[in-house]
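Our consortium's second objective concerns turning raw sequence data into structural hypotheses that experimental partners can test. To show how far this objective has progressed, the report includes one record in full. It was chosen at random from the queue rather than selected for favorable results. The single chain below, 267 residues long, was entered without modification.
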Amino acid sequence: MPRVPFLPCVASVHGPRSVPLRAVAAASAAAFAAHRWIDALRRSLDPEVFGITVLPHPSMLDGAGDRCACCSALLERDPHGDIVVCALPQGIYAMIALGEYAGRAGEAARMIKGACWSDGAWSWGSALGRALGAVHEHLHAPASTPGQGAPLGRALVPVPGDPWRTAWRGLDHAGRIARAASTAASMPCVDLLVRRDATRQASRGARARRSAHGRFAIKLKSEHVPESVWLVDDVCTTGATASDCAAQLRAAGASWVGLAVLARAHQ
């Protein structure tokens, strides 16, 4: 092990002395061990560890089935059961979701974020990109909305997470999903947003989530904001995060904002 660096200390009664930075060394060793554990988990991800038999794959959503009329998510529930309620978040003109939060898409999103499942983020992001490419040609803004007549999806913009948690996980889940979708849909991916508030949405109540505003901002040195953009994230529950991001993008010059997620929470 390399020698621990020393720092002169002038407060000693015996004159200047050199003391090792043991606290810094211990913290560095703990961080190194944590990153090695995360890398090992990422390389040998076993579904049985998480209590499931098979890792969720986008192909599981292929085939016939009822889909949400608002976000096109596959509804993995009894069509004769509860009435599904889904609506566009405020400031969002269109939304695409692969599945519902209570189904396989939500399970994949939780594993991507919680277990740093990088390969899953790429495969599910690619599926999201294919879905975006399928609607890109024929989806246009209504005549009563700003940006009418302009082709949608000029750029994909990932929803930024907290930088400290992203560094700890070693994976920007929304960014990787957006880059995979960008490759599959042949659309540019641009990082335009930064996060101001480090508070996790999951730690807030539903009412507090909807009332939280100003948590995102445009990067100071960001390039020109495209006229039409798709926000890309892993899940959409209350829609407050998407609305907050859309408000910042419209204030910076975007006239049309859509939302593309892996899973959408339906009531």
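The partners drew two points from this record. Residues 22-43 form the longest helix (22 residues). The two ends are 55 Å apart (CA to CA). Both points have been shared with the crystallography group to help prioritize constructs.
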